[in-house]
Design a protein that fits this description.
- 15% of the residues lie in helices and 52% in strands.
- It has 212 residues and is mainly β.
- The protein has one domain: Jelly Rolls (Sandwich).
- The strands form two sheets. Strands 2-1-6-11-8-9 form a six-stranded antiparallel beta sheet, with no helix packed on it. Strands 3-4-5-12-7-10 form a six-stranded antiparallel beta sheet, with no helix packed on it.
- Strand 1 and strand 2 form a beta hairpin.
- Helix 1 (2-8) packs antiparallel against helix 2 (188-211).
Length: 212
């Protein structure tokens, strides 16, 4: 059990985190130290309702590094399309990660065309908030239901920052829910050790049961 715990835990201090929600000239910024979620709730431009939540370590546990939720974003009347830009960044990551996984899940309802979205994740080896030095993953298109995922090897030595950027263009009277995430992908060697640890634990439990 000690072996398993060590592999699943990635030591991390609190990571300063900043959430930015904007639409046209309307912009809101919320910051925190990573120990608790940060959120914005309220109207943003043509979006009459929106609840956006950002999380990072140490509130998140490994392998999750950065998570962005946008819940029940609703549009009202607007000319053409209603645009919402959401960006979440966290700095001061130090743990080495060989592969990063970027994931976007979402659903939408609309009386017109499906909303157009663009999703990107970034790593900044200079530890810059909202830095876009290295693209980790991206996907875009119109959706009513979206599920996209990508993995990428990237340098992560020393201090670095991670950023999730999401833009949504929706018709009036639309509703959107999205869940996006950057996480660490365990290396094959770590997975093998984890499997060995789980097997050892199972054998110990079996032996104890046999001796009862």
């Amino acid at each position: 059990m000690l072996l398993t715990s060590g592999l699943l835990s990635i030591p991390s201090l609190a990571n300063p985190i900043t959430l930015r929600v904007s639409s046209g000239a309307n912009s809101h910024t919320v910051s925190g130290n990573g120990s608790t979620p940060i959120s914005f709730a309220g109207p943003v431009g043509p979006f009459v309702a929106n609840v956006t939540v950002g999380n990072t370590q140490p509130f998140l546990t490994a392998p999750d590094l950065l998570n962005l939720l946008s819940i029940d974003a609703k549009t009202k009347n607007c000319f053409g399309s209603c645009s919402l830009l959401v960006a979440l960044t966290a700095t001061n990551f130090t743990q080495p990660v060989s592969f990063f996984k970027s994931t976007l899940l979402g659903t939408a309802t609309s009386l017109r065309a499906a909303p157009l979205f663009s999703f990107s994740t970034y790593l900044s080896p200079t530890n810059t908030p909202f830095g876009q030095n290295i693209l980790l993953g991206s996907c875009s298109g119109r959706f009513f239901v979206v599920n996209c995922m990508s993995t990428k090897a990237a340098f992560s030595g020393g201090l670095y920052s991670l950023t999730i950027a999401l833009s949504i263009d929706a018709a009036p009277n639309s509703s959107i829910n999205v869940d996006s995430d950057i996480s660490a992908v365990p290396e094959p060697a770590s997975m093998a050790l984890l499997g060995f640890g789980l097997l050892s634990g199972a054998l110990m439990l079996k032996q104890r049961a046999m001796h009862k």
